[in-house]
Specification:
The complex is a heterodimer of chains A (309) and B (261). Chain A is α/β, with parallel strands linked by helices and 309 residues long. Chain A has helices at 82-89, 91-96, 110-121, 149-162, 179-187, 226-239, 253-262, 272-275, 279-293; strands at 11-13, 16-18, 22-24, 47-52, 65-68, 71-74, 101-105, 128-132, 167-171, 193-195, 199-201, 204-205, 210-211, 218-221, 244-247, 266-269. Chain A has one domain: TIM Barrel, CATH 3.20.20.70. Chain A has nine helices and 16 strands. In chain A, helix 5 packs across helix 6 and helix 6 runs parallel beside helix 7. Chain A is globular and about 55 Å long. Chain B is of the alpha/beta class and 261 residues long. Chain B folds into two domains: 3-93, Translation factors (Elongation Factor Tu (Ef-tu), domain 3, Beta Barrel), CATH 2.40.30; 105-254, Rossmann fold (3-Layer(aba) Sandwich). Chain B contains six helices and 16 strands. The longest helix of chain B is centred in the last third of the chain and has 14 residues, at 192-205. Chain B is globular. Classes of the chains: A alpha/beta (309), B alpha/beta (261). The complex binds flavin-adenine dinucleotide, flavin mononucleotide and FE2/S2 (inorganic) cluster (FES). Flavin-adenine dinucleotide binds at residues 37, 50, 52-55, 66-69, 71-75, 113, 116, 214-217, 248 of chain B.
Amino acid sequence: MTTSASPSLAVNVGGIAMQNPVTVASGTFGYGVEYADWLDVRRLGAITVKGIRLEAWPGNPLPRHVEVPGGLVNAIGLQGPGVAGFIAQYLPRLREFGVPVIVNIWGTTVEEYAEVAARLSDVPGIAGLEVNVSCPNVKAGGSAFGADPATMAGVVAAVRRRTPLPVIPKLAPNVPAMGPFARAAAEAGADALSLVNTLPAMVIDIERRRPVLANRVGGLSGACIHPVAVKHVYDAAQAVKLPILAMGGIQEAREAIEFLIAGATAVAVGTANFIDPSTPLRVIDGIRDYLVRHQMRDVAQLTGSLAVS
Amino acid sequence: MPLGEAAILEQTPVSGGYCLLRLAAPELAAAAQPGQFIHLRIPGLETTALRRPFSIYRAGAGELAILYKRVGRGTDVLATLPAGTRLSVMGPLGNGFPLASGDRLPILVGGGYGVAPLVFLATRLPRKGVVLLGGRRAADVLCIADFEALGWSVEVATQDGSLGTEGLVTDLLGRHLDAGAPPAELFACGPDGMLRAVGTRAIAAGCRAWLSLDHHMVCGIGACLACVQRLREADGSIHIARVCKDGPIFEARTIVWEDPA
Ligand SMILES: Cc1cc2nc3c(=O)[nH]c(=O)nc-3n(C[C@H](O)[C@H](O)[C@H](O)COP(=O)(O)OP(=O)(O)OC[C@H]3O[C@@H](n4cnc5c(N)ncnc54)[C@H](O)[C@@H]3O)c2cc1C
Ligand SMILES: Cc1cc2nc3c(=O)[nH]c(=O)nc-3n(C[C@H](O)[C@H](O)[C@H](O)COP(=O)(O)O)c2cc1C
Ligand code: FES
């Protein structure tokens, strides 16, 4: 018995048709254009851009990041050009890449989230909205809306009412259990789930006895958070039927495949882009090789294939 | 821009804990402009370690060199890598110094490893000028011979007086910016305090100063917004630039020192 040489990698994440299950994590790939010189972005399953709110936002003071063993703590603070700036400066080039564009959105009020969603729904070239209710780096907005299932669901429902685009809430990893969040998001009309965002973290300069980050605290990302993320993806997949876009610490195909086995439909490469911009393409190739080696014809066979006895 | 690999040709210790690293990197060397930098992945650090940025010290004939100081775990490991080691290199990155037209006298001001991009600049400027070098002590003052070999006149200041004038490198600027001196254009790389002082003097004297900023970086290509610097444009408007992509070189008048981000 032989299987066809090239297994199918195409997936559908809540209405977003992707040629393969690999996108990039918001905030680690700019607005797509920055990395276009460094890898063939047309090969990605989708491009997910940095968080956008209604108006331009300056972000946090410096320093905004610090390297830690196995990862990175950042407090960029969602600096961005605002909806109009994004549409004018970046969307035209992004469209030319010919891959689905997922826009990560945030707001300081529920109404702002909904307004951003509505504005982005009026322009062509956007495939879906990832709703950031989990950024640890801004005081108002972000994680303030993601800390309990009902508040989070309120944001999702408000966005849902204002957009026909696929709505993908992005959930925080610092919760006691993912199940209630996944169910609340599903009931509020989410088309898929994105998890996880960074873990709240702090690094202290012991000589100065001061926080290293100007924002005092930041979000931990990178290889060190991967097992935490796998557990959340597994729990979410047990709780709801929604497709899951999984991220946290992918460095090679191996970690991405773990996410798929745990129940994810697609994955996003984040911090690893900074270290090796070719990572997403290596992950795509690695998933294909894995499927061939395990004689699977479709990546869908991998999703949720975890054997638990 | 290639995401390339380059092999170490040679590493030579220089004075004051500095090392000279020569890489075989033909494409990079051909494309490099003075003031640009490379973003190096250091094998031997864990695979999750960030890249480290280094200014290009020399480029040509298929080779690229950097001059670096051992200041932490990355540069400590880098210093142990033998010839033949292959490094993943992103670059050349950043905007580089403008290559002045030649109608003004170029004055280069360097502190510590900040001299590295200035040597490269001196090889490319259309006109020779003056180099002012500073350091805590004689061992921190590098590349005097490079500049002299290129026909530049070198003046030195050290804080302990062990070489040249006792004091700061900016103390040497005065007579070059006097009313009677020929019109000058400044190019500087070094610690923030030095850059700021150079900028202040240049603005007072009515000449331009191109300053190379040294912000900590993550991506090195303008995607993550870790390295930002607030700039004030000529029309008074403020915008947030990325040092890695829009810089690292900015004109002194534009830099908002008090409030970088
Ligand atoms: C545009 C640019 C050009 C540079 N050119 C040179 C050069 O020609 N020669 C040279 O010796 N050094 C240069 N540096 C500084 C050099 O990048 C740091 O010394 C180096 O990253 C330190 O790494 P480490 O692991 O040894 O130190 P650690 O302190 O262990 O590093 C920890 C983290 O902080 C970052 N970091 C620490 N110090 C600096 C610094 N001064 N600037 C930026 N990031 C820093 C590191 O990249 C790393 O992410 C340059 C920096 C920039 C931004
Ligand atoms: C520098 C940086 C900026 C980020 N910016 C955003 C953002 O704007 N919106 C968002 O939802 N997540 C943001 N994130 C979180 C990532 O999208 C991702 O969820 C997280 O980093 C985990 O993946 P990783 O371990 O592969 O990086 C950011 C992460 C980093 C490291
Ligand atoms: S280091 Fe990422 S934007 Fe400059």
